[in-house]
Amino acid sequence: MESRGMKKWRPFATMPEQYIGLKEMINKQAEVVQSVLTEEQMEQINFILIEALHTNKQVYLTYYKQDQCITETGFIQFVDSLGNLFIFIDDVFELKNKMKLSELIDVHFA
């Protein structure tokens, strides 16, 4: 007979359906309803975006994506208020991200 060798004991790995169900439940709990901003809040966000663009200051962006609130730090590269979009470069991977202004929840300086 051949030896099995050292194998890690994995008691719950025999039920992959359970992992899928648990992951769905955890994702469902993390879902957030997108909040509606007032005119004053939208003006404040627009003002901060424009100032960050001209002064090249780092900002914290909180936005709504796929039923979750996500916060990232980065630099604003382009703002188009009429076209409802802006471009920011994230601090971690230095990638350009194009987003709609309507997805933003909060913006403040880092």
Annotation keywords:
110 residues, 2 helices, 5 strands, elongated, alpha+beta, 35% strand
Describe it for me?
With 110 residues, the chain is an alpha+beta fold. The chain is built from two helices and five strands. Strand 3 (85-90) and strand 4 (96-100) form a beta hairpin. It is elongated.
Q: What would you call the structural class? A: alpha+beta
Q: Gap between N and C termini, in Å?
A: 64 Å
The largest pleated sheet is described as: 5 strands, antiparallel
- Estimate the mean pLDDT confidence: 84
Shape: elongated
By DSSP (H or I, 4+ residues per run), the number of helices equals: 2
In short:
The chain has helices at residues 16-29, 39-55, and strands at 58-65, 68-80, 85-90, 96-100, 104-109. The protein is of the alpha+beta class. The longest helix is centred in the middle third of the chain and has 17 residues, at 39-55.
Write the layout of secondary structure elements.
Elements: H1 16-29, H2 39-55, E1 58-65, E2 68-80, E3 85-90, E4 96-100, E5 104-109
Antiparallel strand pairs: 1-2, 1-5, 2-3, 3-4
